[in-house]
Design the sequence.
């Protein structure tokens, strides 16, 4: 992709243990274009949050990036010195986490936090930064923004707090926003508001967004493309409608089938037997093979690479194709 | 806090036989005041939160009744009061016609009743004693209620229960930490079943689990209900899960039931404005990226709830009456505008 803002190539992340390195991320590649939302979806232990952590340069020992590269607007950022990376983070990469209180200082007025962040990354006077802070709060939908600058984080509701975090992430006009489960801690009615807000901001600002979540419903509402992760690998990636409507990888199909729908009655849910393997027990070959109902002998020994089918790519030796793709019908 | 009329039973299960569970006028008021000394020094008044306000419903035998609501709706508080983990401020809970903690009921009868009610919790990591073997965990109700006394028979029963929930009888010698989240929830279900209950209160039983594992547990719970004729009170914030599991659904908002109707009717034709907003807010997999009107506002602080209908500040159909009067539950809907036929 030529207009890719964020580009991850063959990323491998390992954790040092007494029994040798454990591979948590095993050779993943993806691109996110300007104005695009890439959803990264997977169950616990799939490595989706760790991938986000690598992009923002916060993988801490015993974890380390063992190989591969991460490029932001063409510049390699995975091997930058700490100080250099700190400037990139915040200025070029904005972050939104599940718990707004991770990003907000409980003892500081939110105005001061915003103004400080703005002035760290842009040459502005205090007054200019304050105006920008008010503008940002208005943009994320905080009523009476100018007065709210004086409030502390605890004076905001959960949804309003997450809006402040989004304002903070946008403060320096980043190229990329990494949002890790931004709506998971919120009630469903508030979640819908935050999804609508993120969509509007992405469109208006032309940022690239990496949206990490376990919730396929959130992905369906906001993402342009989706990467499905399993045991540290991307098993399927493509436009969100294609992946949801016609999944090619049996894991994606199983995942989709196991989600109860608002329209279904008591029909039995499709279930995937077993659970995600632990890092020290990832099966040989395709990591999904012990849980797969389409497993071939080959799947147990050889690791499938991503291959294109129509507009999506799936890592599977026996992908679901053609008419049997209507698994969700 | 509500005054005046009590909204009574609009929540009658379709069955002709008497319901297994009757919850009437359930209320819980929490005292969240500062300490007496601090209040005396500062002259601050007592502060009370009405977490559950005149909640009334019935559950038929073999039925799944779900309570759904967002945080602060009081759904878990209702669950805890129904099983007796939390004292009620007012109201009555009867199982099979007998009041659960009525001192007038003979002790033996109350003990027998206790056995009929079991609970499954959200967090399978916190609800199992980490120092006990799975066998001991599952056997505890068997021993406590004196279902079996012979140790051989108990061991055999534990093996049967583990097999029933999809685990191996040999797993009884292991400890909880050796199991995944989904398997721990199976252990919790086996423990709940060991007392041979008629009624199980399930408080967000799959909320801590991944979706593929959630599907396993929901399927298991449905199978067990079919096989054992269990009655469930199912608590969840997840509307799709509730839709999937429940026969009838009660929607809670700030401690009050706003709508109680059969599951399909509720989802096909939601009537209370809050129910409509809630259903509309659920991301739809089948129709992705449809631009929808996001819900307005957030749940107010329960310490200082709105007057009249609690939902009125967020309601698109609000009229003056809604600000003054608490609507009664009529035909399963507690809304002035629905009652007078204007929406």
Sequence:
């Amino acid at each position: 992709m030529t207009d890719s803002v964020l580009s991850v190539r063959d990323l491998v992340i390992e954790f040092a243990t007494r029994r040798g390195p454990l591979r948590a991320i095993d050779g993943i590649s993806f691109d996110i274009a300007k104005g695009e939302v890439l959803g990264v979806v997977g169950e616990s232990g799939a490595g989706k949050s760790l991938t986000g952590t690598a992009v923002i340069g916060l993988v801490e020992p015993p974890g380390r990036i063992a190989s591969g590269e991460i490029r932001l607007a063409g510049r390699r950022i995975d091997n930058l010195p700490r100080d250099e990376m700190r400037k990139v983070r915040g200025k070029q990469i904005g972050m939104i986490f599940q718990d707004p209180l991770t990003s907000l200082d409980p003892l500081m007025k939110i105005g001061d936090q915003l103004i400080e962040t703005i002035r760290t990354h842009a040459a502005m006077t205090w007054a200019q930064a304050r105006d920008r802070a008010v503008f940002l709060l208005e943009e994320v939908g905080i009523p009476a923004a100018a007065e709210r600058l004086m409030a502390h984080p605890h004076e905001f509701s959960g949804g309003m707090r997450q809006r402040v975090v989004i304002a903070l992430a946008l403060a320096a006009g980043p190229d990329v926003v990494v949002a890790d489960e931004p709506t998971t801690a919120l009630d469903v009615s508030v979640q819908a508001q935050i999804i609508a807000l993120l969509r509007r901001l992405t469109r208006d600002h032309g940022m690239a967004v990496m949206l990490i979540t376990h919730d396929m419903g959130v992905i369906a509402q906001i993402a342009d493309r989706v990467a499905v992760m399993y045991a540290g690998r991307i098993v399927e990636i493509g436009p969100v409608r294609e992946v949801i409507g016609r999944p090619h990888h049996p894991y994606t199909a199983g995942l989709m089938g196991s989600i109860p729908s608002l329209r279904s009655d008591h029909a039995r849910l499709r279930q995937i037997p077993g659970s995600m393997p632990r890092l020290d027990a990832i099966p040989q070959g395709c990591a999904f093979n012990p849980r797969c109902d389409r497993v071939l002998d080959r799947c147990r020994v050889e690791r499938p690479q991503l291959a294109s089918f129509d507009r999506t790519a799936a890592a599977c030796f026996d992908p679901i194709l053609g008419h049997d793709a209507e698994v969700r019908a | 806090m509500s005054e005046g009329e009590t909204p009574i039973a609009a929540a009658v299960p379709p069955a002709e036989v008497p319901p297994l569970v009757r919850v009437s006028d359930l209320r819980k008021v929490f005292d969240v005041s500062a300490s007496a000394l601090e209040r005396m020094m500062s002259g601050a008044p007592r502060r009370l939160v009405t977490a559950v306000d005149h909640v009334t419903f019935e559950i038929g035998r073999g039925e799944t009744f779900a309570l759904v609501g967002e945080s602060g709706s009081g759904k878990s508080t209702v669950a805890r009061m129904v099983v007796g983990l939390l004292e009620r401020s007012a109201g009555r809970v009867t199982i099979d016609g007998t009041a659960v903690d009525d001192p007038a009921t003979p002790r033996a009868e109350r003990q027998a009743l206790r056995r009929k009610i079991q609970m499954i919790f959200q967090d399978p990591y916190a609800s199992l004693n980490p120092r006990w073997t799975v066998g001991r965990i599952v056997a505890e109700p068997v021993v406590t209620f004196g279902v079996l006394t012979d140790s051989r028979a108990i061991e055999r029963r534990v093996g049967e229960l583990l097999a029933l929930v999809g685990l191996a009888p040999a797993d009884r010698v292991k400890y909880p930490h050796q199991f995944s989240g989904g398997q721990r929830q199976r252990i919790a279900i086996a423990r709940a079943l060991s007392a041979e209950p008629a009624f199980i209160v399930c408080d967000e039983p799959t909320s801590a689990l991944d979706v593929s594992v959630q599907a396993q547990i929901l399927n298991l719970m449905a199978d067990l209900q079919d096989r054992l004729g269990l009655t469930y009170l199912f608590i969840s914030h997840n509307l799709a899960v509730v839709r999937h599991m429940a026969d009838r659904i009660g929607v809670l908002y700030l401690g009050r039931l706003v709508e109680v109707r059969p599951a399909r009717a509720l989802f096909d034709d939601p009537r209370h404005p809050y129910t409509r907003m809630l259903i509309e807010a659920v991301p739809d997999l089948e129709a992705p990226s449809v631009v929808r009107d996001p819900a307005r506002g957030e749940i107010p602080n329960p310490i200082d709830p709105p007057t009249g209908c609690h939902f009125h500040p967020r309601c698109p159909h609000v009229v003056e009456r809604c600000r003054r009067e608490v609507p009664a539950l009529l035909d399963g809907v507690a809304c002035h505008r629905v009652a007078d036929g204007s929406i």
